[in-house]
């Protein structure tokens, strides 16, 4: 009978029939993989713990610095400083605007002065023909004013002074008007004496 055989022999034959060697090798590989995975997990866990400790120290340092900064910070002083800087900024902006306006004004004056300088340089040292003519006309106008203040009005005819109207007091102290024709045959000295006597 089957039960009459040795159990060890039966087990041995049963094991031989099942062929469990590949399964044993697979279990061995799994155990090795689990061991390697456990070692990697432990290493990763240690690294994470070390990193967490460093981050905790850094966080504590930053919190302490933040707390010290908050304790040393004065909100009133900060607001006052901000207001002071704003005031300074507006003053600088106002000064800059004023300087811009003054610069534009001075630039205009400089351009005008340059134009005048160029005009004077074109006229030359003696002022040019127009300046000479202006000086002559000013001289004539000045003489005419002096003559009028004395009561003598000179009249021109054909571009030359040909007649003078003299208003004097006369011998009896009344106002008299004399018309004197100026001729070239008499000298300037003669007419000067004549006019003084008539005045």
Automatic annotation (TrEMBL):
CDD domains: RWD_Spc24. It holds the Pfam family Spc24. Residues 45-72 form a coiled coil. Keywords: Cell cycle, Cell division, Centromere, Chromosome, Coiled coil, Kinetochore, Mitosis, Nucleus. GO terms for cellular component: microtubule organizing center; Ndc80 complex; nucleus. Transmembrane segments: none annotated. It is found in: Cytoplasm, Cytoskeleton, Microtubule organizing center; Nucleus; Chromosome, Centromere, Kinetochore. One of its GO terms (biological process) is chromosome segregation. GO terms for molecular function: microtubule binding. Gene3D superfamilies: 3.30.160.430. The keyword Repeat does not apply. Component of the NDC80 complex. Acts as a component of the essential kinetochore-associated NDC80 complex, which is required for chromosome segregation and spindle checkpoint activity. Belongs to the SPC24 family. This is Kinetochore protein Spc24. The lineage of its organism: Eukaryota, Fungi, Dikarya, Ascomycota, Pezizomycotina. The gene is SPC24.
């Amino acid at each position: 009978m089957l039960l009459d055989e040795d159990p060890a022999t039966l087990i041995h034959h049963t094991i031989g029939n099942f062929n469990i060697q590949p399964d044993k090798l697979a279990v061995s590989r799994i155990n090795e993989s689990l061991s390697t995975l456990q070692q990697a997990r432990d290493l990763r866990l240690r690294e994470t713990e070390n990193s967490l400790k460093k981050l905790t120290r850094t966080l504590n340092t930053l919190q302490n610095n933040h707390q010290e900064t908050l304790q040393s910070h004065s909100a009133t002083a900060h607001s006052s400083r901000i207001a002071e800087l704003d005031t300074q900024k507006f003053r600088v902006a106002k000064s800059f605007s004023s300087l811009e306006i003054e610069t534009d004004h001075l630039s205009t004056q400089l351009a005008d002065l340059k134009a005048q300088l160029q005009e004077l340089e074109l006229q030359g040292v003696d002022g040019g023909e127009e300046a000479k003519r202006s000086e002559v006309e000013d001289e004539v106008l000045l003489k005419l004013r002096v003559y009028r203040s004395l009561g003598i009005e000179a009249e021109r005819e054909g571009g030359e002074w040909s007649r003078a109207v003299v208003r004097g007091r006369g011998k009896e102290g009344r106002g008299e008007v004399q018309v004197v024709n100026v001729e070239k045959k008499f000298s300037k000295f003669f007419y000067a004496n004549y006019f003084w006597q008539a005045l």
